[in-house]
Amino acid sequence: MKLKNKGILLFFSLFVFFVSTAHAQVYRVSLLTCEPGDELYSAFGHSAIRIMDLGTGRDMVFNYGTFDFDTPFFLYKFARRTLDYKLDVTTYARFIQVYSAEGRAISEQVLDISPPQARSLVEFLDVNLLPDRRFYRYDFFFDNCATRIRDAIELTLGDELVWKEPETEAEPKTFRNLIDECILTSVWADFGIDLALGAVIDEEASSYDAQFLPDYMQAAFARAEIHGKDRKGIRPLVSETRVILDFPPAQQKSWGLFNPYVLLWLLAILFAVITYLGFKRKRLYLGFDIALFSILGILGIVIFLLWFATDHIATKMNWNILWAFPGHLILAFALLSKNLKSWIRKYLLFALIAADAAVVFWIFGWQSFHPSIVPLLLVIILRTNYLYYNIGKHKVLASS
Description:
Layout: H1 2-23, E1 27-34, E2 46-53, E3 59-66, H2 74-80, E4 84-91, H3 92-101, E5 106-111, H4 115-128, E6 135-137, H5 145-157, E7 161-162, E8 173-174, H6 175-183, H7 187-196, E9 204-205, H8 214-223, E10 225-227, E11 234-236, E12 238-245, H9 260-281, H10 286-308, H11 327-336, E13 340-341, H12 343-363, H13 373-394, E14 397-398
Parallel strand pairs: 13-14
Antiparallel strand pairs: 1-2, 1-5, 2-3, 3-4, 4-6, 5-12, 7-10, 8-9, 10-11
Helix pairs in contact: 4-5, 9-13, 10-11, 12-13
């Protein structure tokens, strides 16, 4: 009787085990890396994480790079870095459809993580989909669609995950260098970003820091290892790599003569001619200076607001403000007056010194400026110097 009861108990235990195993969810986890798109916001590529339930066939993509265009005061919040991004989820088929329509290639790296680790990651993602957890304050360099995925993988694997340095020692790169690699052919985007972002991004970026860019994170995943505590021991993080969508490289847009390099050198030539004619004819041609310093003053206000009135880290310490200074707008209005104030000569000297200081900051590497501002700096130095020594000869300077 006892032997019979033991047999029944053993049968029941095996039945429960096989039933529970059959219903246990087994996931395949992979990193999706998407090629850059045509728009500026997609020029750096994109990362997402694919979760496939091998038991049910449910195939989903978790995406940390979404935001709501209908958010009230969208542009204002985006400029101030008070716009929250969110974790979203969609079907794999829908995700592929969107990127296929945009002509953007996608590659997949299947991660060799254990079933318990995969379930832990899925639980983490599900919890972070809750309304009070899914939103986060986006930061382009340190908290974006790529780094969020990396951080989730790190949290799941703990100290079993080991990042490996590249085998070939590359020349050190700054955050600005890394951005330039992505937008070098988009000359106006490159110009605008170099104007808006400050010395903060001229710091050297480690291979770990560089993972804010999807391509660099893809390369880091390919090098990474899992130092497992199970029978597998040390193994690569990625077990399989494949191309899901493939498209020929997009043809680079040609800007022709309409680019900042050409236009600003033409501006420099124009002001050189104006200054020469003014010297010969004993005239100032202040209309050109009013236009120049108005534009520089408006640029200075934008730089000032990005530095002091937003939560963006990358726009701090922006020494473009040395040549594009908000006070230049006041100078432009002052030059409109028939009776010029005596402080104008002092301000011109200040503007001259500030532009020279910008050159010094550049030479010593305190901030890297966009190369096309060289002719603009020459124009500022030329005109402030010319007006400083000649404005009193051709205009009456009234006391302030």
